[in-house]
Amino acid sequence: MTRAGWSCMVEPEILPVLRERRSVRSYDERHVLATSELASLLEAARWAPSAGNSQPWAFLVGRRDDAAHRSFVPLLAPSVRRWAPAASALVFALHQVGTGPEADALTYSDYAAYDLGQAVAQLCVQAGALGLSCHQFAAFDHDGMAELAGVPAHWSVTTGIAVGRGLLSELAPRERRPLSSIACGGRFGASLRL
Length: 194
Ligand SMILES: Cc1cc2nc3c(=O)[nH]c(=O)nc-3n(C[C@H](O)[C@H](O)[C@H](O)COP(=O)(O)O)c2cc1C
Description:
This protein is an alpha+beta fold. Helices cover about 30% and strands about 15% of the residues.
């Protein structure tokens, strides 16, 4: 697998905020996430598209040194606990897994997990635009988090996101599958000329 992963003559252009995004494992512990920055991240998620405009997402937020953050940290898997607590915030992303009893019950859609992924992607891109780094993770006690935060049964705590000022220097090069292996013509596996 090549590092760049493209087969055309010129590396395709993408936005620097996408090219430069990395899941960092080291955060500046002096950085404090401003309320306005946190609001921008969540606002970016809020404007994501969703099936039938169902908006089947919710977010739990703890900022480093606050009570929510302190309660989240013991639920992280040891592998994540090594780096995530130093980030300025821990955000847990939830998606709906069924229709609930609320008066304003959201319409449940089979695409809720897909929609949450888009909302989190938008949050991460917004973070990049603000000079912040996100590292998403699944390695935490999902049931414990649901219990801790009083999450109703028709919601799932899906992923965590560490957000902060990343220290990029400690990152190893990463790999991607080549463009030719993910972009097909009219049939699955048929190569698309680019
Ligand atoms: C749904 C999801 C779950 C992930 N879970 C973990 C995790 O538990 N621990 C971890 O260190 N990284 C986790 N990651 C980060 C990926 O390992 C990372 O995105 C991948 O290696 C590509 O690196 P990059 O994001 O820097 O391009 C997760 C990412 C996603 C999207």
